[in-house]
Sequence to fold (161 residues):
Amino acid sequence: MDYAQTDGYSPMWRMDKDREAITDLWDEGKIEEGMKLAEKWLEKVPVDIQMQGWYSHFLETKGDFSGSIKHYFIKLGLIHSITSSGTGLSPDSPWKVISVHEEYDILGNIGAQLISQSLGKTSEGRPCDVMVCKIGEKKITLYFDVSISMEATSKLLNPSE
Fold:
């Protein structure tokens, strides 16, 4: 939540051209170049769960096991931060996120397949994503408080307000 208060915060970090350059380099097999940019990216956006995981993976393939474990645990810490903000099982206790990307990172990390998504409200009236998912054979509904992300997106789209 502290990161969302910084000057550089944007809830749409996955669409940043600097981030896209990293994944483009990796897609082209230019791992070393991508790693250098990823390190700078994570200094700028340390809350990027997906990038923490990728960076951990590439450090492991290079034999930097200590660095790999460090970034793996940062990834887990970010996931824990979100999943400990509520149960996620009702609008009374949603998981609080600062970016919609975090919702999909959580779903991926818990093995949830998204069936449907809609916008609802938390019990306090804040905007809430309602995600109907399948985990294994079980259907489950998860709730994410998206008020921080929506407020920041609104400011980006309407800077004069």
Summary: The longest strand covers residues 112-121. The domain at 3-81 is CATH 1.25.40.10 (Serine Threonine Protein Phosphatase 5, Tetratricopeptide repeat).
